[in-house]
Automatic annotation (TrEMBL):
Pathway: Protein modification; protein glycosylation. Residues 279-422 form the Glycosyl transferase family domain. One of its GO terms (cellular component) is endoplasmic reticulum membrane. It is an enzyme of class 2 (transferase). The keyword Transmembrane helix applies. It holds the Pfam family Glycos_transf_1. Residues 1-29 form the signal peptide. The gene is ALG1. Its EC number is 2.4.1.142. Belongs to the glycosyltransferase group 1 family. Glycosyltransferase 33 subfamily. This is Chitobiosyldiphosphodolichol beta-mannosyltransferase. One of its GO terms (molecular function) is chitobiosyldiphosphodolichol beta-mannosyltransferase activity.
């Protein structure tokens, strides 16, 4: 008994000394911010943009997350940003699911707290939610120890995403909702991605948040023709959809499926009878039903067979995720004659170039909560790329029907939109080019400008 008391006393004294040391250090690190993503850093663009904006304002930034894919070069090249890798625990192969999940959560909590305490204290901890279990509680505890302030950036609700897999009444989903609602109130500042989410947080969660709309970064822009050709030639080495149907008769010409370059003059031109390039991006999860796109493509193919004046299509679907293999199998079963579908994983620098080279974007994201917006559409708009997007509750905050794109409900409506947009392609007087013109003429507020107006005043005032 006496030994136990001594151990507890030693632990309590050690914790007090740690807190005192951290708080002494905090006074020397007021311009340091920790950004936390309990996910892949390379697939968390909004948090990368936060880190870059903080670095540009003189903060030193420690970015904690899984280093599965490569972040943007600008992040890697910044001398003010340090990326610290978190260890991702794979699911155990034995035991009931609830036990596997519990072990993973406990490991992540201990591991994240250790990583946070090993860093120099920060004025702020910026946390992406979801995933917030166990990150919100861990980051709040670290803030208490170090005197930091917790900023939660609400992208969606974690429990609603879990509900897509397990069902809304599953005990894990109900537990996650209770946890998220309770711990979400512990933050000093809350950001969110839509006005609809801001209102829901206030009315149903008792959380006051500030809407910070996603905006495209500076590198999302229209791609010059010479860079388009370089990208197409690079991709053609791996993906047949980008290869020319026939070799040029002149050996001094270099040709892709879309462009041709005169080696002597360096001039790049678009092929007169090129296919149309349709792009979508996805995390291959349950909130995006790609069977809608595949059904629309089947109808589009039938229209071509029936003699409609429509171009062949190259459909590029980028991304990684759990349902990719399932949809890849469905795609292989289609046997399209006028449509080629490829599903590459692009380097971070190539993705903006692809969006800036495409003719049309398609978004199949349906928010699990109905309250978040797809950032992929924001990036497409930054590249002046018109979008067809499946409709849900707050999509109108981003996609303006008949102004910067079109909204559809099902595959029939999407097929009709593809027919209308690609009729007589690439006629410059067509509807597709009118949408491009509207996007070019609209105010394209970029992320850094928006961040200066919204987030910077909040953290300098607190």
């Amino acid at each position: 008994m006496a030994a136990s008391c001594v151990v507890l006393l030693a632990l309590a004294l050690s914790l007090l000394l740690l807190v005192a040391w951290k708080r002494w250090q905090w006074g020397r690190a007021a311009r340091h911010v920790i950004v936390v993503v309990l996910g892949d850093v390379g697939r968390s663009p909004r948090m990368q943009y936060h880190a870059l904006s903080l670095a540009k304002r003189g903060f030193s930034v420690t970015f904690l997350g899984f280093c599965t894919s490569k972040p943007h070069d600008e992040l890697l090249q910044s001398d003010r940003i340090q990326i610290v890798s978190l260890t991702e625990l794979q699911r155990l192969a034995v035991g009931p699911h609830i036990l596997q999940y519990g072990v993973k959560v406990v490991f992540q909590a201990v591991h994240l707290l250790w990583k946070l305490m090993c860093r120099k204290p920060a004025a702020y901890i910026f946390l992406q939610n979801p995933p917030g279990l166990p990150a919100i509680a861990v980051c709040w505890f670290a803030c208490c120890l170090c005197g930091s302030k917790l900023v939660i950036d609400w992208h969606n609700y974690g429990y609603s995403i879990m509900g897509l897999v397990h069902g809304p009444g599953h005990p894990l989903v109900l537990l996650a909702k209770w946890y998220e609602k309770l711990c979400g109130r512990l933050s000093h500042l809350n950001l969110c991605v839509t006005n609809a989410m801001r209102e829901d947080l206030a009315e149903n969660w008792g959380i006051k948040a500030v809407t910070v709309y996603d905006k495209p970064a500076s590198f999302f822009k229209e791609t010059p023709l010479d860079l388009q050709h370089q990208l197409f030639m690079k991709l053609s080495r791996t993906y047949s959809a980008f290869r020319a149907c026939s070799e040029p008769s002149d050996s001094g010409m270099e040709r892709s499926a879309f462009t041709e370059r005169d080696a002597q003059s360096g001039t790049v031109t678009c092929l007169p009878r090129r296919p149309a390039l349709l792009v979508s991006s996805t995390s291959w999860t349950e909130d995006e039903d790609f069977s809608i796109l595949l059904a629309a493509l089947e109808k589009f193919e039938q229209l071509i067979d029936d003699g409609e004046s429509l171009p062949p299509l190259v459909c590029v679907i980028t991304g990684k995720g759990p349902l990719k293999e399932y949809y890849s199998h469905l795609i292989c079963q289609k046997h399209f004659q006028h449509i080629q579908v490829c599903t590459p994983w692009l380097e971070a620098e190539d993705y903006p170039l692809l969006l800036g080279s495409a003719d049309l974007g398609v978004c199949l994201h349906r928010s699990s909560s109905g309250l978040d917006l797809p950032m992929k559409v924001v990036d497409m708009f930054g590249c002046c790329l018109p979008v067809c997007a499946v409709n849900f509750q707050c999509l109108h905050e981003l996609v303006k029907h008949e102004e910067n794109g079109l909204v559809f409900e099902d595959s029939e409506e999407l097929a009709a939109q593809l027919q209308m947009l690609f009729s007589k392609f690439p006629d410059p007087a067509g509807k597709l080019n009118q949408f491009c013109k509207n996007l070019r003429e609209s105010e394209q507020l970029r992320w850094d400008e928006s961040w200066k107006r919204t987030v910077l005043p909040l953290i300098t005032d607190t």
